[in-house]
């Protein structure tokens, strides 16, 4: 039985590798809180390659404009059609930045329109309970970026389940530290990552 | 004063009276002659309808029917009644095809009806229902089967002049499917495939010690709720015991991967899942996609039926466990087929999993009315009614001897008596 591999999507435009510490941190949380068989290291998958279809959950982030190539667009559309789960996080934490504008355009064009997820969505109860919806990040609260707290995540819904989860809360910055440093936190801020993975594996 | 007629006229009148008495005597003889005195008779198919009433009124010593098609139910039952009344009845029909048809609803949420046909190998069988032709198939190894999306009324199967007809004798109550396992891509995509195929799915997927993600809120399989249970990973002892009880009660189970190695499932498992067999191809070919999947080789025990093997190692097998059914799969990563297979992989993966569940599903049948006139196996019913075929014996007459009907004899007697009476009255005799 294959183990869960946290895979980061590599795309040709922009800076796909802007959050290199996130995979290790998410993997640490999966191993720490669940009994899911998780690979100790993540994988990097080129969106234009067939390797996309070996990893049903893909994490995509960056700061810069995203323009999919034709091969990337084809693969993303097919990946979602076959039941894959794409988690996209805006590493800028802004509301009208280059990454946000371009990646949401690409998602809409390739997969379908993004809709606002209600804050009582099952995603927020998939493992840990987040009664108020998506947990806020320190970047939302300390005045960096656009000084806004984004109240909702967005998604593309296919057959009643989230096929593409889009966040502009900048979890890529929030989770971008070495897992050993979790001991300095009063509350582990990567718990929501566990919900994302459990949701992808069970819905 | 009575007149005296000419001697010739009187002689004619006496002749008419004698003829009347002879005719009456003949009618009495025909009516009451003993069967043993009749000759053995044989009838061709075209003459059977005319012969049956005659054989009933005046049974011959023995009856032989030379048939080119199984007679309709009425004729068959009539012949059986004559035989039970004491007249030996034999039949022959070398050209009658052994034809039978069965109509069975499929345990699948998409519905559908399986038409099972028994016919001589090589025979062309035309299938039709009350609305239209369904298909024409050539029987191989004594039979054929056709999947029809739906049927209306009786389904007929015809080979030449012989026709068999049947209609579904019951309908199915399809229940939910329960998927048990850990949170893995395999369980996720099994649930997805079954839901896409129309099954209602309950699931209990373990994500942490004591923490399950559930769907449908049901924790154990139950024949009152579930058509089948899919066990993807080795379950807890209590869950495995519940699955074993469920199967023995008539439920269906699919044991995937290493789940069959759970000690509590040993009684219902087909065999131990052993060493992993590597994929024999890199790419998922459309005609043999599962060759690109590895699997745990199954060592079948007892009366298991091997469903799929590769290089002599069993990848899938099935068996009955009391009144339940079990399919065991060595495959534990079929999700790779769905994700990385060819253009039709999603459909193929879905169809394969749905078919597996259909094959083991607990079938709660609801009987529906059935038309007793349906002849689902004409030749078999003929043999059941009259015994096996046998050649005609030498003393058979090919056609029945002509005998006047009672009505004709009555008319003749009436005319003779009236003629005599008229003659006598006209000459003034009493």
Keywords:
heterodimer; A: alpha/beta; Rossmann fold; 17% strand; B: 430 residues; alpha/beta; eight-stranded mixed beta sheet; 29% helix
Please, could you describe this protein's structure?
The complex is a heterodimer of chains A (203) and B (430). With 203 residues, chain A is α/β, with parallel strands linked by helices. Chain A has one domain (7-202): Rossmann fold (3-Layer(aba) Sandwich), CATH 3.40.50.12140. In chain A, 28% of the residues lie in helices and 17% in strands. Chain A has six helices and seven strands. In chain A, strands 2-1-3-4-7-6-5 form a seven-stranded mixed beta sheet. In chain A, helix 1 crosses helix 6 (191-202). The radius of gyration of chain A is 16 Å and the shape is globular. The relative contact order of chain A is 0.20. With 430 residues, chain B is of the alpha/beta class. Chain B has three domains: 7-94 and 402-426, no CATH class; 100-169 and 368-376, Immunoglobulin-like (Sandwich); 175-365, 3-Layer(aba) Sandwich (Rossmann fold). Helix content of chain B is 29%, strand content 29%. Chain B has nine helices and 22 strands. Chain B has an eight-stranded mixed beta sheet with strand order 14-13-12-15-16-21-20-19. In chain B, helix 1 (7-32) runs antiparallel to helix 9, helix 2 packs parallel to helix 3 (73-84) and helix 3 runs parallel beside helix 8 (378-386). The longest helix of chain B is centred in the N-terminal third of the chain and has 26 residues, at 7-32. Chain B starts with 6 loop residues before the first helix and ends with a helix. The mean pLDDT of chain B is 88. The chains are: A alpha/beta (203), B alpha/beta (430). The A-B interface holds A 1-2, 4, 33-37, 50, 53-54, 56, 79, 81-84, 126-127, 159, 198, 200-203 and B 182-189, 192, 195-196, 203, 205-209, 211, 213, 233, 257-258, 332-333, 335-336, 338-340, 345-346.
């Amino acid at each position: 039985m294959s183990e869960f591999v946290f895979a980061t999507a590599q795309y040709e435009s922009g800076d796909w590798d802007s959050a290199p510490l996130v995979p290790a941190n998410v993997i640490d949380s999966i191993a720490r809180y669940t009994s899911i068989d998780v690979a100790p290291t993540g994988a990097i998958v080129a969106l234009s390659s067939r390797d996309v279809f070996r990893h049903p959950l893909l994490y995509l982030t960056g700061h810069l404009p995203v323009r999919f190539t034709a091969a990337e667009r084809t693969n993303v559309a097919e990946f979602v059609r076959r039941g894959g789960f794409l988690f996209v996080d805006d590493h800028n934490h802004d509301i009208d930045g280059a990454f946000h504008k371009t990646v949401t355009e690409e998602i809409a064009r390739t997969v379908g329109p993004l809709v606002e997820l209600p804050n009582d969505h099952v995603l927020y109860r998939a493992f840990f309970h987040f009664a108020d919806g998506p947990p806020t990040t320190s970047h939302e609260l300390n005045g960096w970026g656009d000084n806004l707290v984004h109240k909702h995540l967005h998604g593309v819904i296919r057959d009643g389940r989230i096929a593409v989860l889009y966040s502009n809360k900048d979890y890529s910055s929030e989770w971008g530290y070495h897992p050993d440093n979790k001991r300095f936190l009063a509350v582990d801020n990567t718990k929501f990552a566990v919900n994302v993975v459990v949701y992808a594996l069970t819905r | 004063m009575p007149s005296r007629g000419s001697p010739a006229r009187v002689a004619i009148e006496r002749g008419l009276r004698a003829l009347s008495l002879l005719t009456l005597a003949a009618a009495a003889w025909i009516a009451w002659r003993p069967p043993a005195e009749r000759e053995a008779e044989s009838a061709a198919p075209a003459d059977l309808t005319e012969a049956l009433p005659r054989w009933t009124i005046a049974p011959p010593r023995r009856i032989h029917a030379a048939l080119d098609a199984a007679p309709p139910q009425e004729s068959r039952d009539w012949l059986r009644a004559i035989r039970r009344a004491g007249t030996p009845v034999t039949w022959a029909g070398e050209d009658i095809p052994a034809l039978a048809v069965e109509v069975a609803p499929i345990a699948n949420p998409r519905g559908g009806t399986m038409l099972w046909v028994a016919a001589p190998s090589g025979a062309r069988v035309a299938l039709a229902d009350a609305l239209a032709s369904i298909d024409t198939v050539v029987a191989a190894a004594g039979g054929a089967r056709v999947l029809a999306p739906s049927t209306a009324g009786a389904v007929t199967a015809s080979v030449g002049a012989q026709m068999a007809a049947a209609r579904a004798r019951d309908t199915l109550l399809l229940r939910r499917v329960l998927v048990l396992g850990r949170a893995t891509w395999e369980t996720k995509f099994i649930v997805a495939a079954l839901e896409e195929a129309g099954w209602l799915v309950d699931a209990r997927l373990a994500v942490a010690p004591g923490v399950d993600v559930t769907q449908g809120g049901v924790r154990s399989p139950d024949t009152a709720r579930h058509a089948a249970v899919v066990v993807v990973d080795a379950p807890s002892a209590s869950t495995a015991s519940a699955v074993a009880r469920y199967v023995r009660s008539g439920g269906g189970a699919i044991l995937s991967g290493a789940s069959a190695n759970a000690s509590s499932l040993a009684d219902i498992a087909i065999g131990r899942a052993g060493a992993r067999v590597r994929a024999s191809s890199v790419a998922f070919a459309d005609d043999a996609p599962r060759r690109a999947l590895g699997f745990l080789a199954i060592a079948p025990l007892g009366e298991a039926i091997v469903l799929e093997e590769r290089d002599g190692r069993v990848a899938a097998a099935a068996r009955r466990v009391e009144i339940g059914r079990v399919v065991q799969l060595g495959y534990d990563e079929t999700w790779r087929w769905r994700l990385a297979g060819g253009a039709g992989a999603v459909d193929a993966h879905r169809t394969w999993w749905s078919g597996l569940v259909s094959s083991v599903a607990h079938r709660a049948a609801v009987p529906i009315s059935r038309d007793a006139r349906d002849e689902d196996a004409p030749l078999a019913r003929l043999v059941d009614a009259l015994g096996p075929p046998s050649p005609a014996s030498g003393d058979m007459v090919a056609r029945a001897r002509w005998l006047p009907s009672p009505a004709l004899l009555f008319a003749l007697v009436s005319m003779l008596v009236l003629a005599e009476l008229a003659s006598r009255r006209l000459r003034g005799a009493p």
